[in-house]
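Might I ask for a little of your time on a matter of protein folding? The record follows directly beneath this note:
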Amino acid sequence: MEAKRRTLRSFVSKLSSVSEQSQLDAVRELRLMTKQDEETRSVIADSGAIPYLVDNLFSYSHACQENASATLLNISISCKEPLMSTRGVLDAISHVLSRHNSTSAASAVQSCAATLYSLLVVDNYRPIIGSKRDIVYSLVDIIKNPKSPPRSIKDALKALFGLALHPLNRCTMIQLGAVEALFTTGLKDQKVGIVEDVTAVIAQIAGCEESVEAFREVSGIGVLVDLLDMGNKSSMKTKENAVSGLLKLVRCGGEKVAMDVRLRALGAFDGIADVKENGSSKGKSKAEALMAEVIGDGNHWNNNNRQRHSRFNSSTSEDSSFSFNLSTDSSESGV
């Protein structure tokens, strides 16, 4: 291990070289080592390499950006605190993300978004990252931009999901156009994985008072109900997310929103039933809770509807989302 430490220190020392090629060679080696050997991540973090890697995110060289951002992502898997405590790290990540459609390398954008996703595993980091409006705006803009690569969109969605786990971040996301981007652009992609990720973020954002008006402006309730239509062949994860989003809207919006959902949900009962009967444990409980919220004590429904949907009984469940398992999706071997 001591020999490995000496080798690492040698590469780290080259990060401060005046030669750009020497810096690039060192970053490439560090990326490879953090990918192949988990133990090297903490050694590199402790050796003072992170500030130099952060500086490379501002480089005009795509090769430097790509390798530095990938190395930081690998480090974030095992050493979140040293990375998060590095001065200027979020500003550097914002720099890359904000130039996703111009000077930033696509893979650097993806690694930076994935690094945020990795850091957002830590509860205390969510309000800190969420306070950086430029980061939130850039993540939303990646989704809105039709030229964004699918991988960039997926990584941006995961970062937004992590941000939305902190309730106070949801209002910021809505203010910066996340709801419109998710409904008008994100759901246009017919890839199952993208739709599942988009609806996972939608389900999280729905859990705040500001979401009611934002969803109304994009006909969000109707879109979520349509996703539950059995004829649309939505995946089970997508339907679970739609149920979760509708449930949160009803709970945040009160009787007015509940009535809107009732008026639209007649065509979605089979989809809700499918989630209740065949979904995950959380999906089942949410579907049952949604029916309890929508049908209530039956005063708003005629006898035929009550008989048709008698299999739905009132239940309570904790309000949590389930599409993303919020841990870094990079393997221990890194990228």
In short: DSSP finds 20 helices and no strands in the chain. The CA atoms of residues 83 and 249 lie 36 Å apart.
